[in-house]
Amino acid sequence: MANEEINGTPSTGTIPSLSLNDGNSIPQIGLGTWRMDDATARRCVRHAISIGYRHIDTASLYGNEVGVGQGIADAIAAGDVARGDLFVTTKVWNDAHRAADTRRSAGDSLRRLGLDYVDLLLVHWPCPKQGLFAESYGEIMVLRDEGLTRSAGVANFYSDVLDELPEAPAVNQIELHPGLPQDEQVDDDRRRGVVTQSWAPLGRAKQFASGPIADVAAELGRTPAQVTLRWHLQRGLVAIPKSADEGRMAENLGVLDFELSDEHMAAIAGLADPDSRIGGDPRFFGDE
Fold first, then answer.
1. Catalytic: which of 53, 62, 137, 158?
2. What SS3 state is found at 18?
3. Which of 69, 80, 143, 157 has an alpha carbon 20 to 30 Å from 132's alpha carbon atom?
């Protein structure tokens, strides 16, 4: 996709990657698949790969791993990619934190995906009152050693629970968008050598109509989504915007040939609002 135009959205170069603490690397932009059914996931994953995406994010909870796997298989069969070109993530749900259940969940996910391995396997939420997240992560480490996942990671973790893990994960996937920039957690992850990945990176477009993001977009001739994703990239984060719209998928890749100034970044930083959380608080979610 180097130096070509994707559905009217200019794209320069390939999607950059970040190095992980285990020697692997992760593309900074991926396709999120939350709330896609199997048929939608198959179509979207197939199209996303055809226009240049190489990073696909799903989870056992999403109920669409079959469709995601079919989309990947379609792209490989068409000769668009080889398996090794892709970075595929899935996650272990809250009811599978016992080691044996984590292993079963991973095996079920691989069967649904039709893959021999995933690139990243995450503990989806810590559920701290259960007190089993470290056991689940430890089993993911074993699965990594067995080659069933390339990297071991977590999602929605915070400092206190990260302290209890047997080693620093490769990735911590958390809710992160301009309203919830998670500065302290990003800094904490960085100190540990952990890459921070942003879910809901566009904040469901709640701050796109007016204000700093809209102003910067107008100044640069970009869309608010592109400005927001560029903000993630310049902070050294990985973003996985979810879209089932082919035009928006292409739009989300059009962030590689411009930069935000320090003034732009500062203006967007002013949107931080502790009441803008979209999902559950990880200190309590799953334990209610």
1. 62
2. strand
3. 69
Three-state secondary-structure class, residue 190: helix
- Residues 153 and 120 sit within 8 Å (Cβ to Cβ): yes
pLDDT tens figures, 227-286: 999 999 999 999 999 999 999 999 999 999 999 999 999 999 999 998 999 999 999 999
Helix (H, G, I), strand (E, B) or coil at 53: coil
Q: Which two tokens stand for residue 109?
A: 């996910």
pTM score: 0.94
User: What element of type H or E holds 38?
Assistant: helix 38-50
Residues 6+ away with beta carbon under 8 Å from 161: 126, 128, 133, 282
Helix (H, G, I), strand (E, B) or coil at 15: coil
What would the two tokens of residue 249 be? 């998928």
Report pLDDT digits (tens) over 159-186. Answer: 999 999 999 999 999 999 999 999 999 9
- Tokens standing for residue 240: 């996985």
**What are the C-alpha distances in Å from 5 to residues 2, 68, 82, 135?**
9, 26, 23, 46
Helix, strand or coil, per DSSP, at residue 8: coil
Do residues 174 and 155 make contact, with C-beta atoms less than 8 angstroms apart? Answer: yes
- Amino acid identity at 90: T
The yes-or-no answer on residue 137 being catalytic is no
